[in-house]
Amino acid sequence: MTISTQLHDNGTFVVTMDYPPVNALPVAGWFRLAEAVREAGEDPAVHVVLLRAEGRGFNAGVDIKEMQRTAGHDALVGANRGCYLAFKAIYECAVPVIAAVNGFCLGGGVGLVGNCDTIIAADDAYFGVPEVDRGALGAATHLARLVPQHLMRTLYFTSRTIAANDLVQHGSVLETVPAADLHDAALALAAEVAAKDPRVIRAAKAALNGIDPIDVNRSYRYEQGYTFELNLIGAADEHRDAFVATGRPLTD
């Protein structure tokens, strides 16, 4: 179980998540991911970052089983802080970050890609934020960067998913390709960005962040406050326990 990195000769820095079986990252994984992306942006040899995953899907969010088997609140606090730092690292990375999404992209996965600069996906990929079904809140900030406001609210309240092909229509996913071609297509896109003058690209990334109408770091932190409230009243534990025991939402 790792976060691995590889720097290509053209300046493409590939970050790969590999946490079987579903890439639900443990606390340490979120912190390692944040560190890898942050260090990539600080390296002048890096022109672009490509975030990808091995296995059945891109990311299934936090490791709920780790959270429920850990006494006290250390895992909860760690997961929340780790997610915040990983999302922040991607958004504030000094170079563009491209997400190559395979299979499912859920919960914290949407937090990751919502802060990326470009998304390319397999044609069978899908996205969703099932936080309501887990007794938590979060990543609405990032889901709102993928779909219009009313659709975001519907997806959020219902925990429904949306296909990558549908997100192409909304302009948030650049394109979808056959799953077998995803890595090569993502590398080709990254190479196109990497070929630009890195001084200009870094300035462009800073400029685009500077004119962003939403402070994503502050917005997500606000959401997390409600997650802590739900934990204090016991609702979150009830939902997480039900998911660990049955794999289904408590309301089923």
Automatic annotation (TrEMBL):
| One protein family per Pfam | ECH_1
Gene Ontology MF terms in the entry = lyase activity
Q: Which InterPro entries does the record match to this protein?
A: ClpP/crotonase-like_dom_sf, Enoyl-CoA_hydra/iso
Entry keywords, A to Z: Lipid metabolism, Lyase
What's a BP term from Gene Ontology annotated to this protein? fatty acid beta-oxidation
**UniProt similarity note:** Belongs to the enoyl-CoA hydratase/isomerase family.
Family annotation (NCBIfam families): PRK07938.1
What name appears for this protein in its UniProt entry?
Answer: Enoyl-CoA hydratase
